[in-house]
Design goal:
The protein has eleven helices and 16 strands. The protein is α+β, with helices and mostly antiparallel strands. The strands form three sheets. The chain has a seven-stranded mixed sheet with strand order 9-16-11-15-12-13-14, with helices on both faces. Strands 3-10-8-7-6 form a five-stranded mixed sheet, with helices on both faces. A four-stranded mixed sheet has the order 1-2-4-5, sandwiched between helices. Strand 13 and strand 14 form a beta hairpin. The longest helix is centred in the middle third of the chain and has 21 residues. It is globular and about 70 Å long.
């Protein structure tokens, strides 16, 4: 299941980047489960990672290697290499070393990423045996195959691309992501890889990534769980030959806008493909005292199993949304100032059910595949947008059978 039609961009090539895939046999499903991204020597990388205390071995190794000048990203599906202790660290490093031997690079120039089952040892022999094929398959047009190779419970690949005028030339920003369950990010979401041919200073690259993950990848939730393996990587090759961007460059805001558009599209694609999802829910919180308060209210609603199952059932049980707002921790909340809307229908006003609301109106909205929940707190001018999906029987089945 997924909400809305599947759509993957046709032209995503970024000069200075090549992607290749292979089947290592780490994932039970058919198809490739190993992806490789190769960067030109002058490329620069920024990344953010999960804050989960049990972060996976590849996350720890990637953090260590990020301070060097990485040339390759090695990504496997089917095994998270998380909760694997010292062996997991050794396996992650061994994978990097195997790729370095084949490419003539250094081990610390490889960033490893893994996704899949937690707690199982990484089959390094299988992974390394597939590396020659992945290297042979490297090409600039490999984005779609790479997006498919990194999928786990995803039902479709996720990609986005934009072109932005900068300094008299046009730069490209392209990205892929995977994620369907265990989605409630605390930095980015599951795995996302965005590349650009823009020339940009490393500090500006890091700043740009930090700016966009908040309103995009950190503003979605499928099930309220944060993964051990979350990572989001931004790579810049400099091949567009634009004037080098820094934070003071007049075109830097245009670059930021393009990056946010790519990340927002990928983040929404993850929610649309949430495990068992049948509906996309946009929760907009307005008139909050602070942005943090707005986000807290939004996520309280988004994480509520009662709210999510009501959406799945197309049941206009608006009291569940009201209760979630009330328990979100807004100190001194004046409930008579709160208004709640389902699309065009006001369901709550003056601290109670809106006088104009009818069950038939609510039923009409809840039957839709995409629904907007608008919550006006009447406390200030801050706002936030959170994306989520419903909670269906299929979500329970997928996760009950995840290892079988």
């Amino acid at each position: 299941m997924a909400v809305g039609p599947a759509c993957f961009p046709e032209a995503m090539a970024v000069a200075g980047m090549r992607l290749g895939t292979a089947r290592a046999g780490l994932r039970p499903a058919a198809g490739d489960d190993l992806a490789l991204i190769e960067l030109c020597p002058e490329a620069r990388i920024a990344a953010v990672f999960t804050r989960n205390a049990f972060c996976a071995a590849p996350v720890r190794v990637a953090r260590e290697h990020l301070i060097e000048n990485p040339r390759w990203l090695l990504i496997n599906a089917g095994n998270a290499n998380a909760g694997t202790g010292d062996r997991g660290m050794a396996d992650a490093r061994a994978s990097c070393a195997a790729l370095a031997r084949l490419t003539g690079g250094r081990t610390d120039q490889v960033l490893p990423f893994s996704t899949g089952v937690i707690g199982e040892p990484l089959p390094v022999d299988k992974l390394t045996a597939a590396l020659p094929e992945a290297l042979q398959n490297l090409h600039e047009a490999g984005w779609a195959s790479a997006a498919r190779a990194i999928m786990t419970t995803d039902t479709r690949p996720k990609g986005a691309t934009v072109r932005v005028p900068v300094g008299g030339t046009e730069i490209t920003l392209s990205g892929i992501a995977k994620g369907s369950g265990m989605i409630a990010p605390n930095m980015a979401t599951m795995l996302a890889f965005v590349g650009t041919d823009a020339a940009i200073e490393p500090s500006a690259l890091r700043f740009a990534l930090a700016q966009v993950v908040g309103p995009t990848f950190n503003a979605v939730s499928v099930d309220g769980d944060t993964s051990t393996n979350d990572a989001c990587v931004l790579m810049a090759t400099g091949r567009a030959e634009n004037p080098v961007l820094d934070r003071d460059h007049p075109d830097f805001p245009a670059f930021l806008d393009g990056l946010e558009r790519v990340c927002a599209e990928l983040a929404e694609a993850i929610v649309r493909d949430g495990e068992g999802a049948t509906k996309l829910i946009r929760i907009e919180v307005l008139e909050a005292a602070t942005v943090d308060e707005a986000r807290r209210v939004g996520f309280t609603v988004a994480h509520s199993p009662l709210v999510k199952t009501a959406f799945f059932a197309s049941d206009p049980n608006w009291g569940r949304i009201l209760a979630a707002v009330g328990r979100a921790g807004c100190e001194g909340l004046a409930i008579d100032q709160v208004k709640i809307w389902l699309d065009e229908v006001c369901i709550v006003a003056d601290g109670r059910r809106a006088s104009t609301y009818t069950e038939a109106q609510g039923q009409t909205v809840m039957a839709r595949e995409e629904i907007a929940v608008r919550i006006q707190l009447g406390r200030g001018t801050a706002s936030a947008l959170v994306l989520t999906c419903d909670l269906s029987h299929e979500y329970v089945r997928i996760n009950a059978e995840y290892r079988t």
